[in-house]
C-alpha cells in the first residue's frame, strides 16, 4: 500500500474523494453532497468523512497515506493551505485554514490547490490533454473555472491565473456571483443560470425545470435536471443553455487569442454532461471570435470524468 495518495475535489454541489496509487489508478472513491449550511467547518467535516470512506474502500488508513491533496474553489493558497472567498460554497466569504483542519482530522499531510488547475493538470498528465504541451482547461459547473498548462508546466501566475469565468463577455452585462457584471460565469455558471431561470419563471415564462427538481428530490438545478428539461424540449432551458454556450465560446476564444494554446479541455459537471452534445455550437461560437480562425485549437471533453478533480488533487504530492 506504499505510495498511496488521497485526493478531494471540493465543488459547489458535490465532494468527490479518491485514493490513488503512484500510476494514477483509483483504488477507492466516495462522493457526498456539499453541505448547504454549516460554513467552512461543516464542509471540512464532510470532506474528511468522504476521504475516510474512500480509504476504507481501498483498504487503507488515512494516517498511512503519503498525503491528501485538495482541489478547492476560491483563492486556494498552496503555501499556507488557507482557502479564501470561495463564494460558490456556503457562507465561505472569508478565509479558512482548510489544510490544517483536514490534517488534524485525517492524520496526514494536506496540500490545497485551485480545483480547476489541479483538474487541468490531471487531464494533461493522464487524460484528454496528454498529447499536448499547452492547453486551457475550462470547467463548466457551479461556476466557470480555468486552468493553464503552458510549455508542459502549470501556470499559476501570482496565484490566481486561469480565472476564465471572469473574462468579461458583455460590458455592463448580467450580474455575476462575484459581484461584477458581464463575466462569462454570469451567463454560463450553473448558479447564475439557476438564478436567471427562477427570475424568468417568476416573470411568467413557462418551464418544467423546478418541477423536475422537486420530482427528483434535488435542492438545486443539477446538470441532470438541465438534461431532463432539454430532452423534454423545455424552451426556457434551451434558451439558457444556448446563452451559456454563446458566453463560453466568446470567452474561450478571447483566451485562445491571448495564449494560442494547442488545445482546450472542457470539463466540469455541465461540461462533461453537455460537452459532446454542444461541441459543434461551442466551436462555431468560438470561431466567430478567433483571430486565427484557420488554426483553431483542438477542443476535447475531459476524459477523466467526475474523478478528474480528485485525481488532479492527489497529484499535488507528485509535483
Helix content: 25-40%
Number of helices: 11
Order of helices and strands: EEEHEEEEHEHEEEHHHHHEHHEH
Specify the CATH homologous superfamily of the largest domain.
ATPase, nucleotide binding domain
The CATH class name of the largest domain reads Alpha Beta
- CATH architecture heading of the largest domain: 2-Layer Sandwich
Poorly predicted sequence stretches spanning 5 or more consecutive residues:
none
**Biggest sheet record:** 5 strands, mixed
Q: Report, as a whole number of angstroms, the end-to-end distance.
A: 20 Å
Order of strands side by side in the largest beta sheet?
3-2-1-4-8
Q: The CATH topology of the largest domain, please?
A: Nucleotidyltransferase, domain 5
- DSSP E strands, number: 13
Beta content: 15-25%
Mean pLDDT level? 94
Number of structural units classed as domains: 2
Radius of gyration: 19 Å
Structural class: alpha/beta
Shape: globular
Structure report:
By secondary structure, this protein is an alpha/beta fold. It has 2 domains: 5-119 and 307-317, 2-Layer Sandwich (Nucleotidyltransferase, domain 5); 130-302, ATPase, nucleotide binding domain (Nucleotidyltransferase, domain 5, 2-Layer Sandwich), CATH 3.30.420. Helices cover 38% and strands 19% of the residues. It is built from 11 helices and 13 strands. The strands form 3 sheets. A 5-stranded mixed β-sheet has the order 3-2-1-4-8, sandwiched between helices. A 5-stranded mixed β-sheet has the order 11-10-9-12-13, with helices on both faces. The two termini are 20 Å apart.
Amino acid at each position: 500500500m506504499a505510495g498511496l495518495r488521497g485526493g478531494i475535489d471540493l465543488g459547489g454541489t458535490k465532494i468527490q474523494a479518491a485514493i490513488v496509487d503512484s500510476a494514477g489508478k483509483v483504488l477507492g472513491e466516495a462522493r457526498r453532497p456539499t453541505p448547504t449550511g454549516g460554513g467552512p467547518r461543516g464542509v471540512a467535516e464532510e470532506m474528511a468523512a468522504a476521504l475516510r470512506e474512500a480509504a476504507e474502500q481501498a483498504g487503507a488508513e488515512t494516517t498511512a497515506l503519503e498525503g491528501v491533496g485538495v482541489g478547492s474553489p476560491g483563492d486556494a493558497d498552496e503555501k499556507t493551505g488557507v482557502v479564501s472567498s470561495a463564494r460558490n460554497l456556503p457562507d465561505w466569504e472569508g478565509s479558512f485554514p482548510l489544510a490544517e483542519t483536514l490534517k488534524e482530522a485525517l492524520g496526514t499531510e494536506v496540500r490545497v490547490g485551485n480545483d480547476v488547475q489541479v483538474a487541468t493538470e490531471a487531464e494533461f498528465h493522464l487524460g484528454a490533454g496528454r498529447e499536448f504541451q499547452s492547453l486551457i482547461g475550462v470547467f463548466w459547473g457551479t461556476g466557470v473555472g480555468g486552468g493553464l498548462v503552458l510549455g508542459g508546466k502549470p501556470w499559476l501566475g501570482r496565484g490566481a491565473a486561469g480565472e476564465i469565468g471572469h473574462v468579461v463577455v458583455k460590458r455592463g452585462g448580467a450580474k455575476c456571483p462575484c459581484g461584477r457584471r458581464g463575466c462569462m460565469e454570469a451567463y454560463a455558471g450553473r448558479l447564475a443560470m439557476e438564478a436567471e431561470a427562477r427570475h424568468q419563471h417568476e416573470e411568467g415564462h413557462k418551464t418544467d425545470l423546478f418541477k423536475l427538481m422537486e420530482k427528483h428530490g434535488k435542492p438545486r438545478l443539477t446538470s441532470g435536471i438541465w438534461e431532463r428539461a432539454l430532452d423534454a424540449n423545455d424552451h426556457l432551458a434551451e434558451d439558457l443553455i444556448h446563452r451559456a454556450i454563446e458566453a463560453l465560446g466568446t470567452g474561450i476564444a478571447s483566451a485562445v487569442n491571448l495564449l494560442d494554446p494547442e488545445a482546450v479541455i472542457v470539463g466540469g459537471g455541465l461540461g462533461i454532461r453537455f460537452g459532446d452534445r454542444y461541441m459543434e455550437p461551442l466551436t462555431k461560437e468560438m470561431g466567430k471570435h478567433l483571430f486565427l480562425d484557420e488554426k483553431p485549437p483542438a477542443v476535447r471533453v475531459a476524459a477523466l470524468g467526475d474523478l478528474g478533480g480528485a485525481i488532479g488533487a492527489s497529484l499535488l504530492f507528485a509535483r
